[in-house]
Amino acid sequence: MVRWHRMAGGVVAVGLLAGCASAGRETGGATERPAPGPVTTPQATPSEAVSTDVTPTPAASAASPVEAALQRMSVEDKVGQLFMPVLYGPAADTSSRENEARYGVGTAAKMIEKFRPGGVILFPWADNVKSVRQIVALTNGLQEASPDVPLLIGTDQENGRVSRLAPLVTELPGAADIGSTGDPELARKAAEVTGKELRALGVNVDFAPVADVNIDPDNPVIGPRAYGDDPKKVAKMVAAAVQGFHDAGIAATAKHFPGHGDTNVDSHTGLPVIDHSRSQWSKLDAPPFRAAIDAGVDAVMSAHLVMPKLDASGDPASLSNKILTGLLRERLGFDGVVSTDALDMGGARTKYGDGEVAVRAVLAGADILLMPPDFPEARSALLDAVGSGRISADRLDESVRRILALKAARDLLDEAPVADPDEAERLIGSAAHRKVAAHIADRIRS
């Protein structure tokens, strides 16, 4: 099977090879979720009413796997690829009132069949995390519901304070503790262990590592989630962690661009403002993201914060073309997937409605819209924006290509791997993985 690798300028064949979103409130290692606000049942949009499915052309068979998949997609398929929502329940076929209220269907599988999202994200508060065998059955069931284009299945397993799959997976030190050792190899080993366990569960994307430099000691949202307060040392740790995830076959995500380390405002509830000049940003915030990009990081997650000296509009970075396109893509040269942080966070919702936020994020340069609080409104707004030309067909295709290229690079485009519950139980919490955790713990400096 031909595998594809993303390089500067596009996706290229590399031969025949073997096969933040930190939403919610952490309290004592668990995550509590506020009650959902009012939502509407999905309705047909004018764009849907006139759309037709795409019939493959003869040229599609000669195209690359990414281009062939893209050519088979309708506009609705393409828009669906941009979304990574939360789906509720411990199994793909479990009925949930939350799914019914938010998506108009009872089960996660039916939501995927109806709306064809590009991925999903798992959380304990969504009733997704019960046991090793249950998660394996859930991820396999989600993939079965998306036979045409396999799903990105992600979670926030940073270790330490943000550990969505605790206590099922091996307990590893968090970033600040690993950073205190001064040894990037330990960051690589921790990421590799985490990545192997996630892959065994059927999870293929980790929203980690945190690439923020925690400059403000009173930072309420980053703090120990960062490797430290020295940009050069953090950069080495981040690059090593990206390598560790790749060694395990997992997609890695550097977050939260352009840097969430110098604020005492939590973007879950407010809109932080960081007054770094462009020169300060380049010296303080950018180095870990540069290092992640040089290490081949698959995705970069944007932050819901304002840096007025980088973009004077007052829009959060997640909605800023100057930041996501001008800085991240053009200045730093990142050609991979850009994901927003969770769109249900307060920092994303201070200026615009939920539909307009989704449209502006795509126009800014985002590819994945993570956890929209009102999926029907966001989806309808995107379809209307594409139909009116506000989002051009080329711009939509750019994002879908990047998402498909990520899937191809991680062997997820042709056919999703099937997780084995017996293998997962053997691997997760194994003696070898506990030994790595103990070795890192022994090296931590107080």
As a percent range, the share of strand residues is 5-15%
- Would you tell me the structural class of the helices and strands? alpha/beta
CA(first)-CA(last) distance: 49 Å
Q: For the report, how would you describe the main beta sheet?
A: 6 strands, parallel
* Helical content class: 40-55%
Overall pLDDT? 88
Q: Supply Rg.
A: 20 Å
The total strand number stands at 14
- Total helical elements: 17
Instruction: Kindly report the spatial arrangement of strands forming the biggest sheet.
Output: 6-7-10-11-12-13
Low-confidence stretches: 1-19, 21-61
- Global shape: globular
List descriptors.
446 residues; alpha/beta
Description:
By secondary structure, the chain is of the alpha/beta class. Helix content is 41%, strand content 11%. The protein is built from 17 helices and 14 strands. It has a 6-stranded parallel sheet with strand order 6-7-10-11-12-13. The protein has a two-stranded antiparallel sheet with strand order 1-2. The radius of gyration is 20 Å and the shape is globular.
Describe how the helices and strands are arranged.
Elements lengths: L1 E6 L2 E7 L8 E3 L2 E3 L13 H5 L7 H5 L2 H7 L3 H7 L1 E2 L12 H7 L4 H8 L3 E3 L10 H13 L7 E4 L1 E3 L2 E2 L11 H7 L2 H18 L3 E2 L24 H17 L3 E7 L20 H17 L4 E4 L18 H11 L5 E3 L14 H11 L4 E2 L4 H14 L4 H17 L11 H7 L3 H13 L3
Parallel strand pairs: 5-14, 6-7, 7-10, 10-11, 11-12, 12-13
Antiparallel strand pairs: 1-2, 3-4, 8-9
Helix pairs in contact: 3-15, 4-14, 7-16, 9-10, 9-16, 9-17, 10-11, 13-14
